[in-house]
Amino acid sequence: LEVPWVFDRDEQSVCIRWAPIDGARRYALQMRVCMKSTQDKAEEFQTLSRSIKSTSARKNHLHDELYEFRVAAITEEDDDGDQGEIPETAWSASLVTGPINPVQLTQMPPPRVFDFDAISATILWETLTPQGHVPRPPFALEMCTDQSRWQNVSSNLNGDRVRKKNLESGKSYYFRIKPVIKTLPECDWSRASIPITIPEKSLAMASIFGDTLLNARSEALNTVDILAGKLIADMLRLLGDPDVPGLDQMW
């Protein structure tokens, strides 16, 4: 198993994710408090669950400490219910993390998606108020899907929004933001945004409106892409083929 990763955290909890394993019926998750020094004796891992069906889990009620998390996949061959012992070789390497210490770190509110179509989305976030001679900082933005790690979108965004292009229809995306600050207290990544699912394309739109439409800057954009997710496009996608009987009566 790959090392799991931190998807989201706050002052009292951590949500971790891991890559799916072929043949896994469910997953087991263990945790222990990290040793504070090399002189301390390592604690035994505690089993938090042996029946996780997804590839993520959130641990609540954490304290201001570092924790080790590890995951094991339970296949049909290995499935002994809750009684069988999981061999040490089945566990992933440990992820070391913990909740946010509000004295040391701050968090921005999560970003939100303002608008999206079949290939892109506009992400908004709150900007920091300048303090003294400190200019408004640039922002870093990351995104991920349900089963991917966080990946960088940009590390130098100005303003309070950006249009992210080249997204894939049918996939769900999350976004997180943080200011890039060198002269202010450290700021951690925001909580993950509410997920948005990029809509499927409706091929009927091109037969009705043509292959391209002009935007406000007179740029020609693909009709199928930019109208995906709009109410009329969703109706047509549900109806299916543009030649279905009765479709012409809709106009």
What structural class is derived from the secondary structure elements? Answer: mainly beta
Q: Which spans of ≥5 residues are poorly predicted at pLDDT below 50?
A: 241-251
> SSE order, as H and E?
EEEEEEEEEEEEEEEEHEEHH
- Average predicted local confidence, pLDDT: 80
Tell me the total number of β-strands.
18
Alpha-carbon Rg, integer: 23 Å
Percent of residues in helices comes to under 10%
Q: Major β-sheet, in short?
A: 4 strands, antiparallel
Shape: flat
Widest β-sheet, arrangement of strands: 4-3-6-7
Q: Estimate the strand proportion.
A: 35-45%
Head-to-tail CA distance between termini: 54 Å
Q: What is the helix tally?
A: 3
Topology record:
Elements: E1 5-9, E2 14-17, E3 24-33, E4 46-52, E5 56-59, E6 67-75, E7 95-97, E8 106-107, E9 112-116, E10 121-124, E11 139-145, E12 151-157, E13 161-164, E14 172-179, E15 187-188, E16 196-197, H1 204-209, E17 212-214, E18 220-222, H2 223-226, H3 231-239
Parallel strand pairs: 8-15
Antiparallel strand pairs: 1-2, 2-5, 3-4, 3-6, 6-7, 9-10, 10-13, 11-12, 11-14, 14-16, 17-18
